[in-house]
Amino acid sequence: MVTAVCTGTARPFNGAETSAIMKRPREGAVQVLPQGLAPDEQADRRVHGGPEMALHLYPLDHHDWWRGVIGDHPALDEPGGFGSNLAVTGLTEDMVHIGDRFRLGSALVEISQPRQPCWKIEHRFGHKGMVVRIVQTGRCGWYFRVIEPGEVAAGDSLERVATGAAEWSVARVFATLFGAKPEPAALRDLAELATLAPKLRAKASARLS
């Protein structure tokens, strides 16, 4: 079940930088469109948003783990604290795969890629080293592309209706692409995985060379 549906607006974040990482819960039904929720903003469209990163899910299950690492930060009480559009429990990176399809309210969505963490998470929480922790533990979250537009509201189901690349969990993809010494055979597989976002297929090819 979806605990909350969260959206944000770009606002001052770090000097001249803006960010929409601070997502807030919405009431009622929210449109799910190919570019994401309507309305929802991304400050830098070069690296956020678009059809391959239409919806972000960062598991609520990780929030308690982070309390043990950084303490009881107020943002950990927010369902969209990590910039997540969907607040969901009981679903983590090792349980889902690239290409898995889910019925989200009346929409149909598909997992496209893990989330690559950036400095904005550390700035949001005021703690250095969080990106390294994410890389080490694989607590990265993931993105969906939208296959069929629709609507979603808090309390709706997020129901898996098809399994994608069963050998490629989000956790394994993240470890392969962002870990220290990926196996060449694994990188070749990812470079050819049609349901993986094109930029990450290209990244797999680049790491091979």
Features:
M1 Pyruvate Kinase, Domain 3, single chain, alpha+beta, 25% helix, 13 strands, 209 residues, five-stranded antiparallel sheet
Q: Strand-and-helix sequence, N→C?
A: EEEEEEEHEEEHHEEEHHH
What's the helical proportion of residues?
A: 25-40%
* Alpha plus pi helix count: 6
Question: Residue-averaged pLDDT, rounded?
Answer: 92
- Give the biggest sheet: 5 strands, antiparallel
What's the helix and strand layout?
Layout: E1 2-7, E2 11-14, E3 17-19, E4 24-25, E5 30-33, E6 36-38, E7 55-57, H1 61-70, E8 86-88, E9 101-104, E10 107-114, H2 119-125, H3 130-137, E11 142-148, E12 150-152, E13 158-162, H4 170-178, H5 184-191, H6 198-208
Written account of the structure:
Pfam families: MOSC, YiiM_3-alpha. This is MOSC domain-containing protein. GO terms for molecular function: catalytic activity; molybdenum ion binding; pyridoxal phosphate binding. It comes from Erythrobacter dokdonensis DSW-74. Residues 24-161 form the MOSC domain. With 209 residues, the chain is of the alpha+beta class. It has one domain (2-167): PK beta-barrel domain-like (M1 Pyruvate Kinase, Domain 3, Beta Barrel), CATH 2.40.33. 25% of the residues lie in helices and 26% in strands. The protein has 6 helices and 13 strands. It has helices spanning 61-70, 119-125, 130-137, 170-178, 184-191, 198-208; strands at residues 2-7, 11-14, 17-19, 24-25, 30-33, 36-38, 55-57, 86-88, 101-104, 107-114, 142-148, 150-152, 158-162. The strands form 4 sheets. It has a 5-stranded antiparallel beta sheet with strand order 7-11-10-9-13. It has a 3-stranded antiparallel beta sheet with strand order 4-1-8, with no helix packed on it. A hairpin with a 2-residue loop joins strand 2 and strand 3. Helix 5 (184-191) runs antiparallel to helix 6. It is globular. The chain starts with a strand and ends with a helix.
